[in-house]
Specification:
Length: 657
């Protein structure tokens, strides 16, 4: 070890010269492109990522790896082969390409050049032509593997062509080391992204048996996902002590993912913050994942700061610039405009095609969640149902397919529930023969709700509920979890809450989250006094940044106090909810106590009588007023407070008689 450490100046200079004047020649980076790795939460959205091959060009992590590898190899060989061996370090990659290209046809050479330039659409057509003429073309099969992996995200077809290419490489070229290395790593990456972790480990075994240095840092993820936690932890312990920046970053990132998936909030946060310091505050991935761990520790402003640092981090080892995390955080905080802006930035962020299957849906997921929060339930339902039908892509996230399915199903169910409430609301103030009342839409929504409910019941029976009930641990929004009560029942929910309180007893602030959730459970059961007491505790203890959960609890508190006869206590809470988060009233199917008034015209009076039948309003002695006016055949309906403040208004140009 000491000899390697002392073998520096002329060899290090040679390595620096090589790196400074040549494209990256690392045997592990056979195609230069941006390459993030495994994510977890935010899968979202939301995830635990680390670099796959570094950023395009000559990433610092790979430069350090190459420099270290060259130095180590040179030190070992210096005694027997002298300086000539040092210079030979740059030769194998070129020879590997020559051995493949020596017998290539003109068409294969053109294909090779276009593949190298990442002209994948053109390369696919060229590869089709090459394979039609010669099915045993290595270049043709290799190109099809790359195109299907990088351009089309068709992993099964990519694996098929890659296996064929490997057979040809061995039979026709004798497995030239540099090209064989590249094939093995490509196979590992495809299998890893497919969540075929046992097969991915077997590929690494083949690699490590033939080549050095070993690929230990790539083992953490498949070991972890196969449940071999102790092995993965030991691996991260070694990697975190590495002198290699990339290995060190992967070690910390893998460890915080392990701790997070084990629901060890404090440990995950500690490894994230320590990892940022140990890697020189350079990694976008570590900053982004640290933001997630800060969220699990209920430090939302700190999470925002970390996510903003991720956006500006010098190492761009994250696929989407972390705008997805910012959009999530701003939505939780009730800062809807900021959330929308972050989603727009996310959409504008260039995402390599090979990652679109994994991350390309993030913007759509967040748009669906934002639409739901803003009360655009028809859009939210449509997008949620579309997302539910897509296959789960969990190869690059730490969560399991069952967790991803749970998050999607909750999103679908709550959107369907809100849509059902909207349709029921429309039926309550429209004539029964109105086509919008008699449509089959309501039946379709009801049937879809039943289907989603059955999936949720099964997933809960399989043990998924406990993690969801514990606040800010999963990709299921904490402010939506209360809706599961109508599916799973109050007994199941209260049992899960009780267990969650015990598990999170070391996090004092978590008690307020559980109070808010339990308040909704008992409120749905008609225990309004208990609900009011729990809401009072929750509202006093919740972080102010946890806005949507706060306003949801506030709506339940207002309804409970109104039902208990404490109207003066309820009024200011109704006002704040109507100002900040009015859509929660439909989500919870709450009635708002109001008085009704019209301007005296016949049209306004008829409209007023219809609105009196609405299930969204409860006519009572309330300072809140629904005012209906008509003008030139049109109607204006406003919700006002006693001072004339307009919570909302809607106008129609003309109403059919």
């Amino acid at each position: 070890m000491s000899q390697m450490a002392n073998c520096d100046s002329p060899l290090e200079a040679a390595a620096n010269k090589l790196l400074g004047s040549q494209p990256t020649a690392d045997s592990r980076q056979f195609r230069t492109r941006k390459s993030p790795e495994n994510q977890s939460r935010a899968t979202v959205v939301y995830g635990w990522r680390s670099t796959r091959r570094g950023v395009s060009g000559e990433p610092i992590a790979d430069r350090e790896r190459i420099r270290s590898a060259l130095s180590a190899v040179s030190c070992r060989l210096l005694a027997t082969c002298g300086v000539v061996c040092i210079l030979a370090a740059s030769v194998p990659a070129a020879r590997a390409e020559e051995s493949v290209l020596a017998s290539a046809t003109e068409a294969e050479r053109t294909l090779w050049e276009d593949l190298d330039k990442e002209k994948y659409v053109k390369a696919r057509d060229e590869a089709d032509a090459v394979l039609a003429n010669n099915p045993d073309s290595f270049i043709g099969n290799w190109a099809m593997a790359i195109v299907h992996h990088d351009e089309l995200s068709n992993h099964a077809r990519a694996l098929f062509f890659l296996k064929r290419a490997e057979e040809i490489l061995a039979k026709k070229y004798g497995n030239p080391p540099e090209r064989h290395r590249k094939a093995l790593i490509e196979e590992y990456e495809i299998l890893s992204e497919m969540d075929e972790n046992q097969a991915a480990l077997l590929v690494l075994d083949r690699y490590d048996a033939l080549y050095a240095p070993k690929f230990d840092e790539r083992r953490v993820w498949p070991l972890f996902k196969l449940g071999r936690i102790d092995e993965a932890r030991r691996m991260t312990d070694r990697l975190m002590k590495s002198d290699d920046w990339n290995a060190r970053m992967r070690g910390y990132n893998g460890r915080l993912a392990l701790e997070s998936e084990a629901n060890h909030r404090a440990a995950a946060y500690r490894f994230a913050i320590d990892g940022i310091a140990a890697t020189g505050e350079r990694s976008c991935v570590l900053f982004g994942n640290a933001a997630d761990t800060a969220t699990t520790m209920f430090r939302l402003r700190e999470a925002e700061e970390l996510a903003l640092k991720a956006v500006k981090a010098p190492e761009r080892d994250c696929p989407q610039g972390e705008y997805n995390r910012l959009a999530q955080l701003y939505l939780m905080m009730g800062e809807f405009q900021k959330s929308l802006s972050a989603i727009e930035s996310l959409k504008k962020t260039k995402l390599e095609k090979r990652y679109r299957a994994h991350y390309g849906l993030n913007a759509r997921i967040l748009t669906a969640d934002l639409a739901y929060a803003l009360g655009r339930v028809e859009d939210a339902e449509r997008m949620a149902v579309e997302l539910q039908r897509l296959p789960e892509r969990t190869g690059m996230v730490s969560g399991s397919k069952s967790k991803e399915r749970l998050a999607r199903t909750v999103r679908t169910y709550v959107a369907l529930d809100a849509r059902a409430n909207l349709l029921a609301e429309r039926r309550s103030y429209r004539p029964w023969l109105d086509p919008k009342v008699m449509s089959a839409d309501a039946m379709g929504v009801a049937l879809a709700k039943i289907e989603a409910s059955q999936i949720l019941i099964q997933l809960a029976a399989d043990g998924a509920l406990q993690d969801v009930v514990r606040p800010n641990l999963t990709t299921v929004w904490t402010w939506q979890v209360g809706s599961l009560t109508s599916v799973l029942g109050s007994g199941v929910m209260r049992s899960a809450i009780s267990a969650g309180r015990a598990l999170d007893r070391e996090q004092a602030v978590a008690a307020s989250y559980f109070d808010a959730l339990e308040a909704e459970v008992v409120w749905r059961g008609g225990e309004f006094g208990v609900a009011a007491a729990l809401c009072g505790k929750a509202l006093a203890g919740l972080p102010k940044e946890e806005a949507l959960l706060h306003w949801r609890a506030q709506a339940i508190y207002a309804d409970s106090m109104w039902r208990l006869g404490w109207s003066d206590v309820a009024r200011p809470h109704y006002r704040e909810v109507l100002q900040k988060f009015p859509s929660i009233l439909r989500i919870l199917d709450l009635r708002v106590p109001v008085t009704f008034a019209a301007d005296g015209t016949a049209l306004a009076k008829r409209a007023l009588e219809r609105l009196r039948g609405s299930r969204r309003f409860d006519e009572s002695n309330s300072p809140l007023r629904v005012q209906v006016n008509s003008d030139k055949g049109g109607l204006t309906v406003c919700l006002l407070d006693e001072n004339g403040y307009q919570f909302s208004c809607t106008t129609t140009d003309k109403v059919d008689e």
